[in-house]
């Protein structure tokens, strides 16, 4: 075959390959465009990895809410301690406002008993708000023992009873769907923990309002007595 003939054959082959590649590239570009359009839809379902990342974000948010509840409880305990100190000084040094009569002494004793009861009750609610609730992470959705159920990858109770090599093999066969399901269990447990914590925390802050009102009443009574004596 002459050189000119070989060039014609090569040119024909290149043209044939170009004719084959061009539709493939066009189909691939169209597929990418459709995927982009599908991802832009609000009504589409999440894929496996997006579902897992979304659940992880939910768990992180719930943990932040939990930490904020603990901080608010500690702050409430500081305020409660200050109120208790003020009340102790007012009752112990009530003679500063004038002579203490028998009636006033009985009234102060009743006030101290009432205040102490309320203070201890709301202090117990603060303990309830701070109480560790990690056991919810160690049980299954039905509350049964984790050891008797299927093996899990993220549960501390399940991981603790696994041998290291068995745990590694379990992770080798792990599926994204299984991880997402376990993260969903954790999100559910954290949601319940947060609800319980914030119910107790609400009672604590209502108690602070009540203790502050009692302190204001005591200060008003003692001040009025001091001015009128």
Description:
The protein is an all-alpha fold and 229 residues long. The protein folds into 2 domains: 1-44; 47-228. 80% of the residues lie in helices and 0% in strands. Helix 2 (48-92) runs parallel beside helix 7 (176-228) and helix 3 packs antiparallel against helix 7 (176-228). The longest helix has 53 residues, at 176-228. It is elongated. The N and C termini lie far apart (131 Å). Residues 4-9 have low confidence and may be disordered.
The fraction of residues in strands falls at under 5%
Assembly form of the protein: single chain
The rough form would be described as elongated
Whole-number average pLDDT?
Answer: 77
Residues in helix, %? over 70%
For the termini, the CA-CA separation is 131 Å
Label the structural class: mainly alpha
Tell me how many strands there are.
0
Report the order of strands and helices: HHHHHHH
**How many DSSP H or I helices?**
7
Unreliable stretches: 4-9
Question: Measured on Cα atoms, how large is the radius of gyration?
Answer: 35 Å
Q: In the residues, how many domains can be counted?
A: 2
Q: Report the sheet with the most strands, covering strand number, pairing sense and barrel closure.
A: none
Features of this protein?
229 residues, 80% helix
Question: How do the helices and strands line up, and which of them pair or pack?
Answer:
Blueprint lengths: L2 H37 L8 H45 L9 H29 L4 H4 L17 H6 L2 H9 L3 H53 L1
Helix pairs in contact: 2-3, 2-7, 3-7
Quickly describe the structure.
By secondary structure, the chain is mainly alpha-helical. 80% of the residues lie in helices and 0% in strands.
């Amino acid at each position: 075959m002459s050189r000119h003939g070989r060039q014609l054959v090569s040119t024909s082959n290149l043209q044939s390959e170009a004719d084959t590649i061009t539709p493939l590239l066009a189909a691939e570009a169209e597929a990418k465009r459709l995927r982009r359009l599908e991802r832009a839809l609000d009504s589409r379902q999440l894929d496996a990895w997006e579902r897992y990342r979304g659940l992880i974000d939910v768990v992180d948010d719930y943990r932040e809410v939990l930490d904020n509840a603990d901080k608010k409880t500690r702050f409430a305990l500081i305020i409660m301690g200050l109120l208790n100190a003020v009340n102790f000084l007012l009752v112990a040094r009530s003679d500063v406002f004038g002579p203490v009569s028998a009636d006033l002494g009985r009234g102060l004793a009743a006030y101290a008993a009432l205040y102490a009861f309320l203070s201890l009750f709301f202090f117990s609610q603060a303990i309830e708000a701070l109480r560790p609730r990690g056991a919810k992470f160690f049980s299954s959705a039905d509350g049964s023992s984790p050891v008797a159920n299927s093996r899990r990858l993220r549960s501390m109770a399940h991981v603790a009873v696994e041998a290291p090599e068995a745990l590694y093999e379990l992770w080798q066969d792990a599926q994204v769907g299984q991880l997402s399901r376990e993260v969903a269990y954790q999100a559910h447990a954290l949601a319940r923990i947060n609800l319980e914590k914030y119910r107790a925390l609400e009672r604590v802050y209502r108690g602070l309002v009540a203790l502050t009102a009692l302190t204001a009443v005591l200060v008003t009574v003692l001040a009025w007595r001091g001015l009128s004596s």
